[in-house]
Write a structure and sequence with these properties.
Strand order of the largest sheet: 4-3-2-5-6-7
Number of strands: 9
Structural class: alpha/beta
Largest sheet: 6 strands, mixed
Strand content: 35-45%
Radius of gyration: 16 Å
Bound molecules: inosinic acid, magnesium ion
C-alpha cells in the first residue's frame, strides 16, 4: 500500500480504475479510426501520463506531436488568456487530428487550441479528455472521448498539478482544502 502525500485528502481514481478506462478509450478510438492514421496532439504538460498510456492502447497507426500553451491562472482557475509556448512540429493539413488533454474545465484553453488547429486545415479534429468538469464550462467545447465526468472539485495526479506539483502521482486525488487556503 502506497503512502499518500500529507497534502492528499482522498483518492478519486486509483491506478486500476484509470488503466481500465484508458484501455476502453483506446479500443473505442481504434474502432472509430480503423484504417486511418491519427496525429495525436498532446497538450503539455498535463496530458503526458494519459497520452503515453492512451497511445499504447490505440492499435491504429499513430503520429505524435505536442503543443504547450500557458493559461494565466488566478488561484485554481484559468483566466482565458492563452499564449503558445511550444507550437506543433508537424503540418496538420489534410490529417486526422486527435487532441489529447488531461481535463476540460472552463473550456477556455481547449477552445483556443481547437481554433488554432482548425486554422491549419486538418481533415478532422476530435478531442479526447481524460476528465471533464461540465459544471465549470464557460465556453462550449465538443468533446468526443471522455474518461471520467466529475463534479467541480480541484484534483491532482496522473498529469494534473497544483503549482506544478503532484503530476507524477499514478492516481487522481483531491488535496486537503488547507493546501489551497493556508489560512483555513
Ligand atoms: P480551462 O481553460 O479552464 O478549461 O483549463 C484547462 C486546464 O486547467 C487543464 O488543462 C489543466 O491544466 C487545468 N486544470 C483545470 N482543472 C484542474 C484541476 O482540477 N486540477 C489541476 N489542473 C486543472
Ligand atoms: Mg493542461
Amino acid at each position: 500500500m502506497r503512502l499518500l502525500p500529507p497534502e492528499m485528502d482522498r483518492i478519486l481514481y486509483g491506478e486500476a480504475a484509470i488503466a481500465e478506462r484508458v484501455a476502453e478509450l483506446g479500443a473505442e478510438i481504434s474502432r472509430d479510426y480503423a484504417g486511418r492514421d491519427i496525429i495525436m496532439v498532446g497538450v503539455l504538460k498535463g496530458a503526458v501520463p494519459f497520452m503515453s498510456d492512451l497511445m499504447r492502447a490505440v492499435t491504429v497507426s499513430c503520429t505524435l506531436d505536442f503543443l504547450s500553451v500557458s493559461s494565466y491562472w488566478r488561484g485554481t482557475q484559468s483566466s482565458g488568456v492563452v499564449r503558445i509556448l511550444k507550437d506543433l512540429d508537424i503540418p496538420l493539413e489534410g490529417r486526422d487530428v486527435l487532441i489529447v488533454d488531461d481535463i476540460l474545465d472552463s473550456g477556455r484553453t481547449l477552445s483556443y487550441i481547437i481554433n488554432l488547429i482548425e486554422s491549419r486545415n486538418p481533415a478532422s479534429i476530435r478531442l479526447c479528455a481524460l476528465l471533464d468538469k461540465p459544471d465549470r464550462r464557460c465556453v462550449p467545447v465538443k468533446v468526443d472521448y471522455t474518461g471520467f465526468t466529475i463534479p467541480d472539485v480541484f484534483i491532482v495526479g496522473y498529469g494534473l498539478d497544483y503549482a506544478e506539483r503532484f503530476r507524477n502521482l499514478p492516481y487522481i486525488g483531491c488535496l486537503k482544502p488547507e493546501v489551497y487556503n493556508p489560512s483555513t
